[in-house]
Amino acid sequence: LLAPTEMSSPSLKTGAYILIGVGALTMLMGFLGCLGAVNEIRCLLGLYFTCLMIILLAQVAAALVIYFQKETLKDELSNVVEDLIKNYDPLNENERRNIQDAWDYVQTQIACCGWTGADDWENNEILKNKSNTEYPCSCSNRSKDLVEGRGFCSLDEPVNGTATYVDWPVHEQGCMDGVEEWLKDNLGVILGVCTGVAVIELLGMILSISLCKNIHSEDYTKVPKS
């Protein structure tokens, strides 16, 4: 899903472009590796090895950037989410619809509301015009609201004057804390997957070198002796 320009940040856009580039390079690398192995072409195997090494180094560099720039990335992500919440409109059918649906999915799955808390939704233009007597359905802690999964739900009991997020039947935890908690709970799985991918890439590099050496040895034995 691609966010519109006004919801993007330099770091997030750069990260998206890097992922696209790595995906394209991976497809090209796989094709060249298969072609080189089947036809025993040393230059293609060498190119396959080089591509694998570049991808592995890029992954290490990305991990270091995320680790050392995590506070900057968190601030930029906060700005993106806050802008999304402020301008959230369930009747919007343009390119923002996909982003809004993705955010509804996050709030539903993590059981959270807003970025730092439910009070973030008080800045939404539509809810302010309705005196906060409605609330985001994806934030709700009631199963009947989650059936809708998106848009706004109305309070069952009318509130005299302007309601606040305290009157909403929603989750208290903000999604920022929910995401951090999810990452901590699944850190072992994430590290395991990353390690497995790195090991597979290293094995591919070793295999390509071995095939190159075998091809070189076969070519040497085929050379007629004078």
TrEMBL record:
The keyword Membrane applies. It is found in: Membrane. It is a multi-pass membrane protein. InterPro entries: Tetraspanin/Peripherin, Tetraspanin_animals, Tetraspanin_CS, Tetraspanin_EC2_sf. The chain crosses the membrane at residues 16-38, 45-68, 189-212. It holds the Pfam family Tetraspanin. GO terms for cellular component: plasma membrane. The keyword Membrane applies. Signal peptide: none annotated. It comes from the Eukaryota. PROSITE patterns: TM4_1 (PS00421). SUPFAM superfamilies: Tetraspanin (SSF48652). Keywords: Membrane, Transmembrane, Transmembrane helix. Belongs to the tetraspanin (TM4SF) family. PANTHER family: CD82 ANTIGEN, TETRASPANIN. This is Tetraspanin. It comes from Origma solitaria.
